[in-house]
Amino acid sequence: MSSLSETWFADGYIDFEQKKYTLLAYLQQITRYFNENKLYPQLSDVIFHYNNLVAFKENKQFLQQQFPKRLTAINMERLQLLYEQMISDDELMQELENIIQYAIQKMNGAIREGTEIYEFVEGSLNISPVGLIPLDTQEGYLFLCDGRFRDVVVYEYRLSIFERHDEKYRGIHTHYLETFSKDLVHTCEHIKTTLIRQYKKLPNPAVYRIETNLVFPVNETLLPIAKRSLVKYIATSAA
Questions:
Q1: Which domain of life is it from (predicted)?
Q2: DSSP alpha helices (H): ranges in the chain?
Q3: Residue-wise pLDDT tens digits, 180-220
């Protein structure tokens, strides 16, 4: 998927019709993926651009604080110069404000569409522990099963906590291990025992099964939502 640059609304000649065409072409691709129930990285990308526009519109300093990882020093300098130029150029300011306002409205519609799919998928998930859960749930295994009922896909997971703007966030990293055929022999309890024997570094792992009766693209939708749902589940269980 071709994506927008971080400063697409300020790149090159600032013309409403030109930027409108660029934006609509981008959103058309986003919608095509959403129609296939593929959310990532498309949803997170359009949310980034939406927040980027809102931040620039409200406060350029907030923009610098909010997106230090994706915006380069060159891009930041470009936006700061543009912001200063806007103040002294009423016509340029009005054109850019028209572009930003239009883009915010259109992106907000795309985000709502993606969020509806996200919430539908999230609502279809059922999370349950496999066997006894140890006190330490920072590392373990995630068993993913979808509506095809054929396989149990196993991921190793590790939780992390990072701070941002005086707030703490929980993150999760997963690593694919292997796929087991789902049958009378390979129950989730049996798979857990197999993993304990095979991977000695986790002798008493936390194991969670995440199931849905529906079928979604795994890497683009099911796995990312399952990971976020697991983080919330573990945080709620520990509270």
A1: Bacteria
A2: 16-35, 42-58, 60-66, 73-88, 90-124, 188-198, 223-238
A3: 998 777 799 999 999 999 999 999 999 999 999 999 999 99
